[in-house]
């Protein structure tokens, strides 16, 4: 069988299964999710054994310690995967919800009902826990999922998927609800991206290069997130202590993630009072600062920021700092150099809070809180399937509801159009 | 200037303008829309003159009478365009609406605020009234629009756009809110489809071939609608008179549009009583019937339906007819051969109505009403920018709200992540 035929076979099975999944009662889905959690815990030794093969290969290939850490399935990681499955079981079922109803002058009652997307393709890198998290969220929303993880995690992903499929079969749900593409070649991804009849959406999770590859090849709609260049704007009226705490948290608490701050914007009126203590605290935490000319007038020892610093996603203990003359200038900087991900203002001014919230066109906009809250779980979605920085379908962290769509339902009594 | 540079210039101006449009007060947008209506009426003689050039060229090129009819700007069509602009002015403004708010255990208040998509590209064929309709809906939702109409309407589209831009300028709104691509070559479209940084969404409106071309080339998300193969299912318990009226209306009232019925499904228990009178009425209206073997046992004079009839979008007075054994068989036929557009059931059975509504995965599902109601205006959206038969972003007829997205807004009091 050619590779293309093999992928088509997988996609067709997913499409077929999706029609069954769309109409599963909530109780059946939740019982299956809990069964999947139990199965993962029971299979822990086998999963760790499969994972050991991937880890050994990664060591041999000389992958970085950080990457090997993300790849490794410890007992604790497996327990976390099982706990996530139980959490998804406890979430409300979005399928079948009627979000609104209204009546037309001719008596037609029109409403919108939430239904699954159908077949979801997830293309991701490294972490084997994405395999069970994505499978859980897709099942809860009534979708079939096709998973294509990184080549470095292939044995782990296959073992996790086989365990989940076994648990599905035991509950009478077709195991093709969760399928893993068994080939690691990019040709397999390319083939999948052509199957717009069988697959409804592609969610790539990984580096910018992977995502650009997917977008340029896909005939299927892609929900994507290139990078997170997040800003904190310290307004002239900010409480100094709060501004310091929020900025420090946004940069230092976990610098390697997409909702960490990369650029600090400071109003010129507060900069001389705010920046010296803030810089001292950041530098003490190991942060390298890169400043605009005005910043360097206040902090002469700071390196100059170059143009590429304003668009950089460092994912590291580096921070660019810019002094701005007004709220307008801060917003304009964010629009020009940002990535539409997450921005925060620290202020005590009612009107500036309101304007920042309204005018900043990013997927999450916060007042007096750290950018690190831009996360499906922290915002109250229960879990996260990914994040979107394009405005189509979803914008920002995506939960179970984002794996559904709304159809129109119409109740009539014989109406015809005149 | 190369073509690519010229298009990039247009796209950049649109992006820049979109930032101003996103924050325009509702009153300013509505006044501009009314000003655009007045301007179209004042410019009617000039518009008709420009249109006459297109019509003459179309006649010379031997275009069909139907196409020339759609292309022609009569006094009445221009009045209709002005009336639509006023209707859009009267619609509620979706921008800034906060659809939900909730509070997290740490005190963060999280909500979702509706904001414009940004820059919308519309690629369409023939009808010059799409130029003003699309411009109106995009402006109302705070978006800049880039319009690329069919080559046969180029003079008309330019004249309409110039009139609208003049009205915008007169109200202090940047005229680049509405731009027309001045080149008719497909290369211009191809160039536009690469500009994912400048354009947020592409909505193609036209034949399947145009849409497939756009999907295969676009790096920008596309909201699309390939075709409408709509079904009416007459259940065994249907009221015969209602079933006849709904089916007749769905097929005959306007056969050339995407929400007209193309296949009639009839439950075997009612077929012998329903089909003879129904067929007589349809044939009298000039409809050609093509039936499955069971249909032809009841109606021996009807032509046999071939396999390709079940997926055909006739857009004409032709109807395929199939007798089915159950609701399940009807739903399975729709899923297999349909286009996820619009389907109706005629029934008196509560449980079958409920199951059909729930299980049919099409964008509009009706009980006891004609498929012809699947239309933005008829469903109460006020106006329609297009229709989507893919489930991403929007599914079904799209109104002003579908030209917006939701961002997360967060009100804190200094929260940091632990």
Taking the alpha carbons of the first and last residues of chain A, their distance comes to: 55 Å
* Strand residue content of chain A: 15-25%
Q: Please state the structural category of chain A.
A: alpha/beta
Largest sheet of chain A: 7 strands, parallel
The largest chain-to-chain contact, stated as pair and per-chain residue counts, equals: A-B, 69 and 69 residues
Name the quaternary structure. Answer: homodimer
Report the top-level CATH class of the largest domain in chain A. Alpha Beta
Please tell me the overall pLDDT of chain A. 95
The low-confidence parts of chain A are none
> What's the helix count of chain A?
14
The total number of structural domains of chain A is 2
User: What is the strand tally of chain A?
Assistant: 16
Overall geometric form of chain A: globular
CATH topology grouping of the largest domain in chain A: Aldehyde Dehydrogenase, Chain A, domain 1
CATH architecture of the largest domain in chain A: 3-Layer(aba) Sandwich
Order of helices and strands of chain A: HHHHHEEEHEHEHEHEHEHEHEEHEHEEEE
């Amino acid at each position: 069988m050619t590779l293309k035929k093999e992928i088509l076979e997988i996609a067709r099975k997913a499409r077929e299964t999706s029609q069954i999944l769309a109409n599963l009662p909530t109780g059946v889905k939740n019982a299956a999710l809990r069964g999947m959690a139990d199965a993962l815990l029971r299979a822990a030794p086998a999963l760790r054994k499969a994972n050991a093969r991937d880890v050994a290969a990664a060591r041999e290939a000389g992958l970085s310690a950080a990457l090997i850490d993300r790849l490794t399935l410890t007992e604790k990681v497996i327990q976390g995967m099982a706990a996530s499955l139980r959490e998804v079981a406890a979430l409300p079922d979005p399928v079948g919800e009627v979000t609104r109803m209204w009546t037309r002058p001719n008596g037609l009652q029109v409403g919108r009902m939430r239904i699954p997307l159908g077949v979801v393709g997830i293309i991701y890198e490294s972490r084997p826990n994405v395999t069970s998290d994505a499978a859980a969220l897709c099942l809860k929303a009534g979708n079939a999922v096709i998973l294509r993880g990184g080549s470095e995690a292939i044995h782990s992903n296959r073992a996790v998927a086989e365990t989940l499929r076994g648990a599905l079969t035991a509950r009478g749900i077709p195991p093709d609800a969760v399928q893993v593409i068994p080939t690691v070649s990019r040709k397999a991804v390319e083939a999948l991206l052509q199957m717009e009849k069988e697959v409804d959406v592609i969610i790539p999770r990984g580096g910018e290069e992977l995502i650009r590859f997917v977008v340029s090849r896909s005939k299927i709609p892609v929900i994507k997130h290139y990078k997170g260049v997040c800003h904190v704007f310290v307004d002239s009226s900010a409480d100094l202590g709060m501004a310091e705490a929020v900025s420090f948290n946004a940069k230092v608490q976990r610098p390697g993630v997409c909702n960490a701050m990369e650029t600090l914007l400071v109003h010129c009126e507060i900069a001389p009072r705010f920046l010296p203590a803030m810089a001292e605290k950041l530098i003490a935490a190991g942060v390298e600062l890169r400043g605009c000319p005005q910043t360097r007038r206040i902090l002469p020892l700071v390196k100059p920021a170059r143009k590429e610093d304003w668009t950089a996603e460092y994912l590291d203990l580096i921070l660019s700092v810019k002094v701005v003359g007004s709220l307008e200038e801060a917003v304009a900087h964010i629009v020009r150099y940002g990535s539409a991900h997450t921005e925060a203002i620290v202020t005590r001014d009612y009107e500036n809070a309101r304007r920042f919230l309204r005018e900043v066109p990013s997927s999450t906009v916060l007042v007096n809180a750290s950018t690190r809250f831009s996360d499906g779980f922290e915002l109250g979605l229960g879990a996260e399937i990914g994040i979107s920085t394009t405005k189509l379908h979803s914008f920002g962290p995506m939960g179970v509801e984002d794996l559904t769509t709304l159809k129109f339902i119409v109740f009539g009594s014989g109406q015809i159009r005149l």
